[in-house]
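User: I'm putting together a teaching handout on how sequence relates to shape, and I'd like one worked example. Could you take ABC transporter domain-containing protein from Nymphaea colorata, show the sequence you're using, and then write out its predicted structure as tokens right after it?

Assistant: Happy to. First the sequence, then the structure tokens directly below it.
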Amino acid sequence: MVLVLGRPGSGKTTLLRALAGKLEPGVKVKGRVTYNGSDVNGSVPKQASAYVGQYDCHQAELTVSETLDFSHGLFGGACTLS
């Protein structure tokens, strides 16, 4: 888990969106992102990361574990959380 701190408008959300490959089309970025020494070419390895936005958009009836399991099932297959 990573905590990114900064003043309002300093680019925290933009940084995280860039790392997650979720920037709007046409936004220019400079630099290089690597994962374990290898270029990720604009995409983050899905097995090792997740992007959780600022707004809480989950089903209140589900536990955290059930929510993560459901999301993983939609985007990556079965998941077992311990």
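A couple of points you could highlight for students: The radius of gyration is 15 Å. Helices lie at 12-20, 64-76.
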